[in-house]
Amino acid sequence: MNHEVIAPNPWMILPFALLLGVMALAPLLAASGWSRHYAKVSLALGAITLGYYFLVLQAPARVWQMAHDYISFIALIGSLFVVSGGIHIKVKGEATPRANVIFLFLGAVVANVLGTTGAAMLLIRPWIRMNRYRVTAYHIAFFIFIVANVGGCLTPIGDPPLFLGYLRGVPFGWIAKNGWPIWATGVGMLLAMFYVVDRLNFTRAPRAVRERETARETWRFDGLPNLFFLAVILGAVFLTRPVFLRETLMVAAAVGSWFTTPKPVHAANQFSLHPVREVAVLFAGIFATMMPALDWLNQNARELLGQNPAPGIFFWCAGGLSGVLDNAPAYLGFWDTLSGATGARSAGELLDQHALSLLAISVGTVFFGAATYIGNGPNFMVKAVADQQKIGLPTFLGFVLKFTLPFLLPMLLAVWLIFFRG
After folding, report:
1. Residue 65 domain-assigned?
2. Helix (H, G, I), strand (E, B) or coil at 306
3. What DSSP state is assigned to residue 152?
4. Mean pLDDT of 406-410
5. What percent of the chain has pLDDT over 90?
6. Distances (CA, A) of 393 to 144, 157, 227, 396, 410
7. What are residue 304's phi and psi, to 5 degrees?
């Protein structure tokens, strides 16, 4: 359901732009200062926008709608993060390239059940341990591509943009029904490229490492009672009434998981609530400050893109924006852009008349979220774990040059040519 028509002053987009710029640059240029003051920056910029909507535009209903979206978003992300942190996978032995491909494929499937955040946090440490004798930056890059982003494209649980679409009226199974060939193409191409690169890495490894990595692997799973709490979260997704029952059940499941998971399991996962606290604070600022940008796009989309723009435009524009800011606000922005450009006033109208464009926005925001460390929340979490293990990932720009352009971009071009070019 669309929100009321609001016409903000374009200058009020500035707090949103400032917040995105600071989020992109501060961790690289002043990491220690950013870690101490990110909450102040995010909440202060958000307060400016909220004051404008309450006092100048007098649009409390608009703020309430955005607050509801934020609470639903953070309840899902946070609860999946906590519950997945209570499950520990212990791996012995090492992985061959074929075993690595199977692991990444299973991670892509699991991402649709646990969400990309939950799957990434559950699997990144076993992934590093499997390849500990020859792990390199490309192991982490392809994990980000497949498990933390592209893999989660089949369900609203899989990635935050799709969940926001579900909240706005997109049926739960719509993306899987219409997007599975795109998912198969994207995941398949990335797995094929990874296999080639990993095979070359494996053949260059010393004989002792290759023999060790073909040894029999032993797996052990701890914290499996958390599967019950996971089932509660997944069941709650389908509840719409009364208001906030869904979110209450998700939070209750997270609290139950936190207090019933044995401390050694959390310790083995090096589990901490800091990442989810940081995401909650930053997204509070993002959801608040992006309201003027979304409302302005809704009002001016036809002038910017013309009436009924081609689906490929939405694929590249929504995806490109996802690469330089988190993909959830990019999805909302281009949902409103599509609504404004076509005159559609509800999810039903978009699905009936502009389904391919909506699919392009959905796929674009999910797939392009893998392009940078800030494209999707799990990317930074995975990078933090890899840095802790001294793997040596490239800088923000280095990641784009070394991995995004040579590996992710060809897959994106293929998806565009096959599914959205017309």
Report:
1. yes
2. coil
3. G
4. 98
5. 55
6. 12, 28, 33, 9, 22
7. -80, -45
